[in-house]
Design a protein that fits this description.
The chain is α+β, with helices and mostly antiparallel strands. The chain contains 14 helices and 26 strands. The strands form 8 sheets. Strands 15-16-17-23-19-20 form a 6-stranded antiparallel beta sheet, with no helix packed on it. A hairpin with a 2-residue loop joins β19 and β20. The protein is globular.
């Protein structure tokens, strides 16, 4: 499926958000989808991750996708799931617990509290409901009560909290190795509500990360879970801005800068470091989303080259990680000599076989290779050789939606009587409607809705000397200041067209420890060799055309955006 608009991608994701849920369990999302078995199956069974973590992420993603699209497709699911989520919050300590099941104890994980806070903070930003803000603050107080304060730092042991004390995980599922990703929702709660408890937790947790060399080396390098490390880096950047702490800003920047050494130009990155060769790792969308958040924060702080990182990540690994079409599953099985449809199976408490492919459509990859939706399958790399069954992990679906939202939200800024186009994606805003012709041709058109100055970021490869700018079909001399095109005055009703040649390049690159030949058109990969063997990525011959399709998707103009 060709990328048309970020909103179309979010609408596609809403299919999965609305349908990949258990109707017999208060719309609890299925954590796993296995595409290879016949018939395909969706399952619970991620331990505590089925509850606070996945449910919290799902509620966050539902609200963000709704804001982007205006769609009510998942309205019923969102309402039922919110009600269920509230039952997971403990009345005494305010923390979000998993339900006790045959595969999971009633326990608290730090990763789960991060997701629960994401849900509550986005819910509060969406509705302004003071009760939801109070629940978020109560959860923060619960974290302060179970953490161990040592000087100016708050520490959590690498365990789960169960029956009033820290214990090894009952489910056997590993905890996030880096708790710093908690900072993202905690800092945003502080900014939105002024919560002193959130401010205190942010200061204590940030000090732990900055002062304890166990998490990051001096150069920002790290080992372990990539999403957790980059989530901590994004949290440090947010904490640095909110708390005016230069140490947090500097460490967050170093971590992201170092991560680029393990990240492909397309945005592919390994799920973890230190457990095996990178060539045997897959890319999960959670890590891609956290890298995108870091790049956006740094770009907004003035590191303008990071806008190019965002553009490449979104146009390539992020959208290629989305399951936009499910017809390939049957054809891939036939090609590989695998079993076809299989016999119908009965629903169980933990699994469904009903319309699994249709329900997974729009979700995001949890284990992608640089050239294939289905990544490498080393033995026992993520437990029980799950990757051999062509898995999707739906924490990645929620993270993919959050990444789409962050790119969409930051594409155009309208502040201080100036419109700034940071990213070349279609957007409708109160300042005007932006349409881009990428990746077919280097052209963007802004129909201004009101009097404004205009700034347009030029891609790093753009030849400023070849720019052609038109206002109301009349060519005007471009004024380029650094990496920005500037127009000092636009009136409401003016139409601006910015045209530039797209750079084409073709060459060998190392992605995920293997060598591939990539064809680039601007910031978009149009082909990769060798291709994947199961579900090849970057099958984009249509992008080689120089004229965009005539039909244009309708854009949604929200009354208000959620500030993340």
């Amino acid at each position: 499926m060709e990328l048309r608009t970020l909103e179309e991608r979010a609408r596609l994701a809403l299919n999965c958000l609305a349908r990949n849920v258990d109707a017999n369990w208060s719309r609890l999302p299925y954590f796993w989808t296995y595409l290879k078995p016949s018939p395909p199956v969706a399952r619970h069974g991620a331990g505590a991750g089925d509850f606070a973590d996945l449910t919290g992420r799902w509620i966050d993603a539902l609200a963000l996708a709704r804001c982007m699209t205006g769609s009510t497709t998942a309205e019923e699911t969102e309402g039922i799931l919110r009600h269920f989520f509230l039952t997971l919050l403990d009345d005494k300590d305010g923390l979000c617990y998993s339900e006790k099941t045959s595969w999971c104890a009633r326990e608290v994980t730090i990763g789960g509290q991060r997701s629960a806070l994401l849900a509550l903070v986005t819910w509060f930003l969406d509705t302004g409901d003071d009760y939801i803000a109070w629940l978020a603050e109560r959860l923060v107080r619960g974290l302060l009560s179970i953490g161990r304060v040592e000087g100016n730092a708050l520490r959590f042991p690498p365990k789960t909290f169960r029956a009033g004390r820290w214990r090894p995980p009952a489910s056997g599922v590993a905890e996030f190795p880096n708790p710093g990703s908690l900072l993202t929702p905690v800092v945003r709660l502080y900014e939105a509500s002024g919560s002193r408890d959130a401010q205190r937790l942010a200061r204590l947790l940030a000090h732990w990360l900055v002062s304890d060399g166990d998490w990051f080396a001096e150069d920002g390098s790290f080992a372990g879970n990539t999403a957790a490390a980059l989530g901590a880096a994004a949290g440090l950047l947010r904490a640095g801005l909110a708390l005016d702490d230069e140490r947090c800003l500097e460490l967050g920047r170093r971590v992201y800068d170092w991560s680029r050494s393990i990240t492909a130009t397309t945005g592919w990155m390994p799920e973890a470091l230190g457990r095996g060769p990178i060539s045997e790792e897959g890319c999960n969308t959670c890590a891609v989303a956290e890298a995108l958040d870091c790049a956006l924060l740094l770009a907004r702080m003035g590191h303008e080259e990071r806008w190019d990182d965002v553009e490449r990540i979104v146009r390539n690994q992020l959208v290629e990680n989305q399951l936009a079409d499910v017809r390939w599953v049957a054809s891939a099985k036939r090609r590989l000599g695998l079993k076809g449809k299989g016999k119908p199976k009965k629903e169980t408490r933990t699994a469904t076989y009903r319309d699994v492919l249709a329900r997974a459509k729009g979700g995001f990859a949890g284990w992608a290779a640089p050239n294939d939706f289905i990544g490498a399958a080393p033995n026992d790399l993520i437990g029980e050789a799950h990757v051999k069954n062509w898995p999707m992990r739906h924490c990645c679906t929620a993270s993919g939606v959050r990444a789409l939202y962050l790119a969409w939200h930051n594409a155009v800024a309208d502040r201080e009587a100036a419109v700034t186009i940071n990213l070349h994606f279609d957007r409708d805003t109160s300042a005007g409607e932006l349409r881009t012709h990428l990746p077919y041709e280097g052209k963007l058109v802004l129909a201004a809705a009101r009097k404004r100055k205009l700034r347009v970021r030029l891609p790093a490869w753009c030849d400023a000397g070849a720019l052609k700018v038109y206002v109301n079909a009349k060519r005007v001399p471009p004024k380029v200041r650094g990496r920005w095109l500037a127009l000092d005055q636009l009136d409401g009703g003016d139409v601006v067209s910015v045209n530039y040649p797209l750079e084409r390049r073709d060459g060998w690159e190392v992605l995920g420890g293997r060598t591939f030949r990539l064809r680039w058109k601007g910031d978009t990969v149009t082909g990769i060799d060798p291709p994947g063997k199961i579900k090849p990525l970057y099958q984009r011959k249509g992008y080689e055309k120089n004229v965009p399709p005539p039909e244009r998707a309708k854009l949604h103009l929200p009354k208000r955006e959620l500030e993340w």
